[in-house]
Automatic annotation (TrEMBL):
<dbReference type="GO" id="GO:0003677">
    <property type="term" value="F:DNA binding"/>
</dbReference>
<dbReference type="GO" id="GO:0005829">
    <property type="term" value="C:cytosol"/>
</dbReference>
<dbReference type="InterPro" id="IPR002836">
    <property type="entry name" value="PDCD5-like"/>
</dbReference>
<dbReference type="Pfam" id="PF01984">
    <property type="entry name" value="dsDNA_bind"/>
</dbReference>
<protein>
    <recommendedName>
        <fullName>DNA-binding protein MBCUR_08100</fullName>
    </recommendedName>
</protein>
<keyword id="KW-0238">DNA-binding</keyword>
<comment type="similarity">
    <text>Belongs to the PDCD5 family.</text>
</comment>
<dbReference type="InterPro" id="IPR022889">
    <property type="entry name" value="DNA_bind_arc"/>
</dbReference>
<feature type="coiled-coil region">
    <location>
        <begin position="12"/>
        <end position="42"/>
    </location>
</feature>
<keyword id="KW-0175">Coiled coil</keyword>
<dbReference type="InterPro" id="IPR036883">
    <property type="entry name" value="PDCD5-like_sf"/>
</dbReference>
Length: 107
C-alpha cells in the first residue's frame, strides 16, 4: 500500500468519525427538544404554549431562554400549578428590556 493510499484511508476514517459524532450530536439535540416540549406541556396552559410558539417565529433564542428558565422554576419548586397565558405575559414583560424612546428634532 502506498503512502498516498494510507493518507486517503486515514482521512476517510476521520470523516466517518466526524459524521458519526455529528449524528450523535443531532440525536441528542432532538432528544433535548422532545424533553423540553414535554416539559412545556406540563408547565404551561395551551394558550401560553401557543403564545410561546408564536413568539418562537420571531425570537427563537429568547424563547429557548424562557423555556429553560421555566423548567428551572419548576425544578426549584417555585411553580406549583400550570402557568397561564397572563402569567407568561407578565414574565415576558419583565424579561424584555425596556425600549428606549428616540426623539429626533430638526432645527
Amino acid at each position: 500500500m502506498s503512502e498516498l493510499d494510507e493518507i486517503r484511508q486515514r482521512r476517510m476514517q476521520e470523516l466517518q468519525q466526524q459524521a458519526i459524532a455529528q449524528e450523535n450530536q443531532q440525536r441528542m439535540a432532538q432528544e433535548l427538544e422532545v424533553q423540553k416540549r414535554q416539559a412545556m406541556v406540563q408547565i404551561l396552559t395551551p394558550e401560553a404554549r401557543s403564545r410561546l410558539t408564536n413568539l418562537r417565529l420571531t425570537k427563537p433564542e429568547f424563547v429557548d431562554q424562557i423555556e429553560m428558565q421555566l423548567i428551572q422554576l419548576v425544578q426549584s419548586g417555585q411553580v406549583k400549578s400550570k402557568i397561564t397565558d397572563d402569567q407568561l405575559k407578565d414574565l415576558l414583560r419583565r424579561l424584555t428590556a425596556p425600549k428606549r424612546d428616540i426623539n429626533i428634532t430638526r432645527k
